[in-house]
Amino acid sequence: MTEQLIYPFTFGDMSQKDLLGGKGANLAEMVRIGLPVPPGFTITTHACREYLQSGQIPTTLIADIDAAMSDLERQTGKKFGGVENP
Question: Which of 19, 37, 72, 78 is a good FRET partner for 43, with 20 to 30 A between their CA atoms?
């Protein structure tokens, strides 16, 4: 089983800085305590480390990003790169 490389802002809290990075953990914490945060996702520190060590983007990351972007489009009713309602 491969490690999950992307998490929505609705996952986690400040205790997961090692996984989500400082900014990702802060955004997750803000969602957890009920602050208004637009929908989004964090690419994990594991994905970053893997890229820095190998010089290669993890094999599943692009597909994971595409899926996360599609989820955001469904949640917001907007289309990335769209002419109407981008």
Answer: 78
